[in-house]
Design goal:
Length: 164
């Protein structure tokens, strides 16, 4: 039994969000949907109150709590991608589904949940790079991006000019 499960507050859209995540990410699925047996401050008896789901193998509960507590960037889903194709696919799935682009590989889904679409190669070039100057160039390149372009970060790390 999992002892720690993250509960995410939604404005009555937990089931929609969970189904979207399950459709986009491998090893993701909706595992249970519960309806409230009685009226609550934000719902009527019989409406969906919680949705249990997994995103990339991690367990979550979506709570249909209403508009009282909106999402913030203080918590985000960080997805480590293998290559540019996976980075593009996940980024585009989120942004093209009424999401919003942000900076440095961050975006928000239509429910306000923040995502970091982070290529593993980016982490290698910045945090695991034995050359401090190359690491800085990679970081500087990343800071100019919304969706991460691995080839541009690699070029910057190598000291090559990076096309706009």
């Amino acid at each position: 039994m999992t002892k720690l499960v993250t509960c995410i507050w939604y404005n009555h859209t937990a089931e929609e969000a969970a189904n979207f995540y399950a459709s986009v990410l491998p090893d993701s699925r909706v595992t249970a949907v519960q309806k409230t047996p009685a009226d609550t401050p934000s719902q009527k008896a019989g409406e969906v109150i919680t949705v249990e789901f997994e995103v990339a193998g991690q367990k979550f509960i979506g709570l249909n709590g209403g508009p009282i507590f909106p999402q913030t960037e203080a918590v985000s889903f960080m997805i480590m991608t293998e290559d540019q194709e996976e980075t593009d696919r996940l980024w585009n799935a989120i942004v093209d589904n009424d999401g919003k682009e942000s900076a440095c590989g961050w975006c928000k889904d239509k429910w306000g949940v923040s995502w970091q679409i982070t290529p593993k190669r980016l982490m290698e070039l910045i945090w695991q790079n034995p050359d401090p100057a190359a690491s800085k160039r990679a970081m500087d390149a990343m800071m100019t991006m919304q969706k991460i372009d691995i080839a541009k970060v690699e070029a910057a790390a190598a000291g090559e000019s990076v096309p706009a």
